[in-house]
Amino acid sequence: MQLTTPHRGARTLTKLALALALLGGGLAAAPAAHAAGPYERGPDPSDALLEASRGPFSTSQRSVSSLVLGFGGGEIYYPDDTSQGTFGAIAISPGYTARWSSLDWLGPRIASHGFVVIGIETNTLYDQPASRGRQLLAALDYLVEDSPSTVRSRIDPSRLAVAGHSMGGGGSLEAADDRSSLRAAVPIAPWNLTKSWSGVRVPTMIIGGESDSIAPVASHSERFYESIPSSSEKAYLELNGASHFFPQVTNTTMAKSMVAWLKRFVDEDTRYEQFLCPPPSGSAIEEYRDTCPSS
Question: Where is the signal peptide (predicted)?
């Protein structure tokens, strides 16, 4: 229905007619505008924004000494912006025998979407998942309590998350199981001898590779996903034809879903639900399952 501007003499009658029409259901009310949540950071998201090599925030980087307690040091990436309040933080562990450099493309990419990221070095290259889980939590504690003020002042200590590759992914499950206050976990090609994670309540996105021969999805990623209760928010993304080492090179599909998951659950930003539910699709995705986020 198109409304024309009334002449001055008819304005009162027109207003009355519109009011009566609205009361009688004759004119549909306009949809409510999106209400911004308290932790929303950055512009409205789009496919192009999430698929770009960098998000909307410029970032800085600083190193963490190997002499810190609880983990082996690493690299911190953080947004330069101080005008939008604090940011959530995520600790990421590399896999067995690997160093942070194997995943370091993830640091600035995730940070540029409005997160503080610490990519850790592990105490030894051979640490098992349980140890890596403890180190991830130690790294988060370091960020919140002991990191330089330029980093610490940017972090909301109530909005923390973990991720990791291979045994680091198994470690992120350990961390989520140990600390239910975490806002999100993203195990990537996770490996762990423990197969049941029925105690995990942290929103968890598991990303597996269809052709992974080191942590085959049938005995690792899929079993982990299935063991997490359906009452917990969870998702399973399987990448078409991907080997165990898919996160060690830039992977747009993985990064897009990972950022969307972190934005939705660490930042409580419902603008990102569109990238999680209905399920994403495309030639790079072999399978996707989830519980669909509850607003």
Answer: 1-35
